[in-house]
């Protein structure tokens, strides 16, 4: 556990070193002031109980006896002088004022030490959230095919919150308590080394007993966070499919499913929290046992008048009790930190995820598309078996295709044949295992990823929009777009009229995923976004397949305007939308089995002819 915690600190703490140094300095000064403030108890007790034995009649010079004798002797002398000069009552009041003053300084330093920890605590949590989000945007699409969105949301919310409440909330304690414990233990040795050695012999047994109880907390915390991820995934799936849930009258089924996972999470959490609640009563009980043992052994020393006086022993007990509080805080940490470490393990699954889509150290940069896109002997599989390629299930196999600038190439075929996968290889959402994809004769793996994707515009079957205004959705990805440019893009996409008829025009919020719009309206906003980007290469992935006839006509008109002067790769199920394509490729089971114009493919009387006949009927 200690190693994992130190790894987290080493990883995230460096930007906040100055706050850490200031906090440590304040803690050291606070500990020193605490020791000196409690030292006022000795003369107070001597005055109250009129202890005059071993009265020192003159100040001791440095070197007269041990450091302990020099300090206690001079303290005794000056207190006696105050009593003789001012009287016992006035001397008692003056010592009380000294105690109040030193306590004020001590508490101010204590506050400063805690305040300097706050920027560290909040900053590290912010940094972790940023790292997760930045990593999510950097990871390839393949990572998210194996992960649930609800689980990822749980990690960036619940797990990071757990890191904050369990680890970051313990930072103040972890940077303060070691200083306090060392300072107090040194003071205890200074007061009575015999009594301190006896005390330290008892403490390890109590620490071991505390460790037995907290040992399983990390595993329990992992289970709790995993079940929380399942709960969040259930919520995310329900929100995404609420229309289907209601259409199939499945509310009761979904409620029972959620109640089952929610109860399992609650039961696991209950067991973990009950174990955690043992921390305070157990530390309180063990602290009382320790005080009782020390009181018994120290009482023997006082009664035998061997090495320690009554007032000094009370001061010893006060300092010892001051040590117990930091030890209790450590016992809380032994319960809290394993929970945070368990959550950090889940966060690290994202942060340490390998990104196979890597950019070369010195990539080639291009700012325009000049000649061709080429698939050269391309084979691709999502789960490639490098050790035994024969066991690989290939999605695409031996694809050879050249798309010349300004041409439109359509991909048709059965669902699951590999069409969408094929176009995803152009912007390098995935990397091929065999062969290569080239832009103007350059392998896309050799190009800068930003440069490559700036050349490409996408219009997908499902228009992916954001919970924002029309203006910001259309201008998404285009910095400093003018209103005139946005207006023109909307007009070309047949979207201007319905946008202006909305409540606030281009400032109207379209709702989550464009939920306030119809399917055809969402698609036309998506096309306007692609028009504004003005890419030389356009990828259309079944852009009209989910639309009604009227919406399809409007969208098709917008697409035809968009496709002019651009190189287009279009995936289509409705063959009527790609009759005018320069080349149509029929994809069947990952291979190109036919290619040609619409008329040529009809004449072949093969796969394409059968698809066309079925749609005609």
UniProtKB/TrEMBL annotation:
Instruction: Report domain ABC transporter positions.
Output: 373-614
Quote the subcellular location field of this record. Cell membrane
Entry keywords, A to Z: ATP-binding, Membrane, Nucleotide-binding, Transmembrane, Transmembrane helix
Per UniProt, residues of the ABC transmembrane type-1 domain are 21-339
Any idea which GO molecular function terms this record carries? ATP binding
Record-annotated membrane-spanning stretches: 20-49, 85-105, 174-191, 285-302, 308-327
Q: How does it sit in the bilayer?
A: Multi-pass membrane protein
Q: Which InterPro entries match?
A: AAA+_ATPase (IPR003593), ABC1_TM_dom (IPR011527), ABC1_TM_sf (IPR036640), ABC_transporter-like_ATP-bd (IPR003439), ABC_transporter-like_CS (IPR017871), P-loop_NTPase (IPR027417), Type_1_exporter (IPR039421)
PROSITE patterns referenced in this protein's UniProt entry, alphabetically: ABC_TM1F, ABC_TRANSPORTER_1, ABC_TRANSPORTER_2
Answer whether the UniProt record assigns the keyword Transmembrane to this protein: yes
Q: Which Gene3D superfamilies does the protein's record reference? A: ABC transporter type 1, transmembrane domain, P-loop containing nucleotide triphosphate hydrolases
**Where is the major localization of this protein?**
membrane
PANTHER family linked: ATP-BINDING CASSETTE SUB-FAMILY B MEMBER 10, MITOCHONDRIAL (PTHR43394:SF1), ATP-DEPENDENT PERMEASE MDL1, MITOCHONDRIAL (PTHR43394)
Which protein, by its recorded name, is this?
ABC transporter ATP-binding protein
